[in-house]
Amino acid sequence: MFALLPFLFMPITVAFVAPQFTSPKLYNSKDVIIMMAEGGPPQYAKRSASVVSNVEVGKGSCMIRVKVDDDEPLDYQPGHVLALEIPDPENEGEWMKGPYTVSRADESSFDVLYRVVGKKTETFRSAKVDATLQFGGKFKVPILEGINQDGLERVVGISTGVGIGPLIGFAEEALSQQEFSRIDLYVAFKEREDICCVDVLDELSKVYPTRFSWTPIISSTHGHTSAPENLKLIAERAPTKAGTTHYHMIGNGSMVNEWKAGLANAGVAKERVTLEMYFNHKVAPRPEAVEDISEALKEVTLASK
Prior knowledge:
The strands form 3 sheets. The chain has a 6-stranded antiparallel barrel. It has a 5-stranded parallel β-sheet with strand order 13-12-11-14-15, sandwiched between helices. The chain has a 4-stranded antiparallel β-sheet with strand order 1-4-3-2, with no helix packed on it. Helices cover 24% and strands 34% of the residues.
């Protein structure tokens, strides 16, 4: 059975992205078939699953672990996007569905970090262990796969809210490789109480003290990630050689668009920038933010040439 995912193109504030498809394509793997119709929503094969755990990891943010019910192995990595479905409690036989980004995964289960913002995510939050779910599809490029490690000295991850989920899984995966470069994460939250996943992030800092750091940025008091004091933090850890830092932005489209434009103006090579937008895809970047990002990182780029 295949299902349509029309809401990949809707601006709802949960952990998801909106992939754009411009031509027909058939993708096959061991565990999923994705069909992409010309000008229409993607279709995906459904697989039965159940809840392993579902815990609040910060105010209004929950991490759900989902286990597949069949014996076919999963093939997801942090940064992949899938469709996750849960029975609609108000409409028997109907399912609420949405695209979500994988935080981490193994051959039989995957984690998704989501923000509780409405009926669907309230329903997810109420799901108990062994509750029935469905999922399918595999979209986007995993974070690690999108990073060229040749000449790499540092990865900078910039996220808003639950965008930290996939970055955590990426960091765990990448740092397990002894030769992988340093990773610095900068995570924006509106209020201090919104900070999530503190335990796992602090543990990564303890295990890899010279290779990993994370910095929460409280936008209500310290401004956006593009605020001058925050940009100074990001720039001061830059390597001494140009082209050795990779930037991955994930979260609100406003932030992502500003950093994308600012990095381009600063002369950062396109292949050193990857991104994922959750919502507000068409929001125009603020010119002053683009300029601040460009100036802060241009100095690093030019000085290191």
